[in-house]
Write a structure and sequence with these properties.
Oligomer: single chain
Largest sheet: 4 strands, antiparallel
Order of helices and strands: EEEEHHHEEHHHHHHH
Distance between the termini: 38 Å
Bound molecules: the ligand N#Cc1ccc(Nc2nc(N)cc(-n3cnc(CCO)c3)n2)cc1
Shape: globular
Strand content: 5-15%
Number of helices: 10
Helix content: 25-40%
Structural class: alpha+beta
């Protein structure tokens, strides 16, 4: 198992001065190996915003240095700053927990459909995301039915690949076959995670299998268990089909979109609005 090496870079506020195109800061990185913590002083060179057009050569130089080593050559630990667009309302799981179930079913279905659409896009490009979850769905627009605006989500980067982190803490998002044989996993693993994310969306952003320790989580897969079904049977069916232990039985993204559309047209919410509150 890849040892769970956790890195944290803390950054001193004031800069130590300026390089030609960069600002430099003193920081420290903390590695945790076999449970013990090692602090290392680091120097962070950040490219000046005004020179952003020369970031290619900045990265080229840095990556060249990180590929060779010599006792008189400066060690480059990594090029580890990713700059993302700031998404206004942040991660969906936290948003749903804050909203405490006051989010209408139609809002949740809209978000589920948007995720199914981007899943379909990735499937057509033959790209496996590998880390679909509510915490990796970012809410760019809150959506307010009273003024007729709908939510808008953005799927975040997969982050560190599953193989690197201890996949156990990714249960029940990581597909079972990925734990079995990481090299065999393919498109279907994103369908499994889609099912888990659907479950999160309709359970107020609660983390599934919370409180289970890694051993118990492993048993959940060993015993081919399923997450507790939501009351809405059509939704439970869709989640169950996505979280099939046999990858070949999981629906295609087009199948998922079709089934979601049929959910939307069903008059579930009209039946008894009270019901949908806790769907
Ligand atoms: N209160 C608040 C609040 C917090 C954050 C954002 N915005 C934003 N933009 C991004 N590009 C990425 C993330 N982000 C959040 N959690 C993760 C890790 C899990 O994916 C990534 N958050 C907006 C509002």
């Amino acid at each position: 198992k890849a040892s769970h090496v956790q890195k944290k870079c803390s950054l001193q506020e004031e800069s130590l001065g300026r390089g030609s195109f960069t600002r430099i800061f003193k920081g420290s990185k903390t590695d945790i190996r076999e449970g013990e913590r090692q602090n290392t002083d680091v120097l962070l060179k950040v490219l000046d915003g005004s020179y952003k057009n020369c970031w290619e050569s900045f990265f080229e130089a840095a990556s060249l240095m990180s590929q060779i080593s010599h006792k008189h050559l400066l060690l480059v630990y990594g090029i580890n700053i990713m700059v993302q667009e700031f998404v206004k309302y942040g991660a969906l799981d936290l948003f749903l927990r804050k909203k405490q179930g006051s989010v209408p079913v139609s809002w949740k279905l809209d978000v589920a459909k948007q995720l199914a659409c981007v899943l379909n896009f990735l499937e057509e490009k033959k790209i496996v995301h590998g880390n679909i979850s509510a915490k990796n769905l970012l809410l760019a627009r809150e959506g307010d039915s009273s003024i007729g605006t709908s939510p808008f989500i953005k799927l975040s980067d997969p982050g560190i690949s599953v193989a690197v982190t201890v996949a156990l803490d990714r249960i029940p998002w990581v597909a079972p076959e990925v734990l079995e044989a990481p090299e065999t996993w393919g498109m279907e693993c994103d369908k499994w995670s889609f099912g888990t994310t659907l479950w999160e969306i309709f359970n107020g952003g609660k983390a599934p299998l919370q409180g289970l320790d890694p051993q118990q989580k492993l048993m959940f897969y060993e015993n081919h268990e399923q997450l507790p079904s939501p009351k809405w049977t059509e939704l439970a069916d869709l989640i169950g089909r996505c979280m099939e232990y046999d990858p070949a039985l999981r629906p295609s993204s087009r199948g998922i979109i079709r089934q979601l559309n049929s959910l939307i047209t069903s008059d579930y919410e009209l039946l008894d609005p009270g019901l949908s509150a806790h769907a």
